[in-house]
Amino acid sequence: MSSVANAEVVKRLVVLIADSRPHTRALLRSMLLQLEVKKIHEVSDGAAALEGLSILNPDVMILDWNLAVINARDVMRMARSSTTNPNPNVPIIVLSSSGQIEYVQEAMKHGTPYFMVWPISPKMLQQRLISIVVEARNTARTYMRKVAASGGAL
Length: 154
Fold this sequence. Notes:
The chain has six helices and five strands. The chain is an alpha/beta fold. A five-stranded parallel β-sheet has the order 2-1-3-4-5, sandwiched between helices. α1 (about 5-10) crosses α6 and α3 packs parallel to α4 (about 70-80). The model has no long low-confidence stretch (mean pLDDT about 90).
């Protein structure tokens, strides 16, 4: 699919921003608005992030590494649990002011390979969102091929 079509898909995403700092949430909102994303929700702590996951069912969550109340590690762990989250496969982009390898490894351990280090630009965010959309499409195509090959019984 073309980059124009991918950009169109990004515009339709439902994005949940989970960050304790109002100015960072505002900056992320501004970047998403530049990308013409229409459905943006913001929360200020980990407990609200988990609630937002279950109520809003976002396409993507942007999660600050230094989240308050419930930390990012616990949010990722609980987000991946089907008992606490209706969509345990939701893509999560972790944002941090530090790219320490331990942070990246911890995020990956919790099924979150999308790690970005501040400063980021709208273009970098767009590229990450497009890569998530393309990966989701490829996963769906692989699944559909398996279903077809098995005669519809998976």
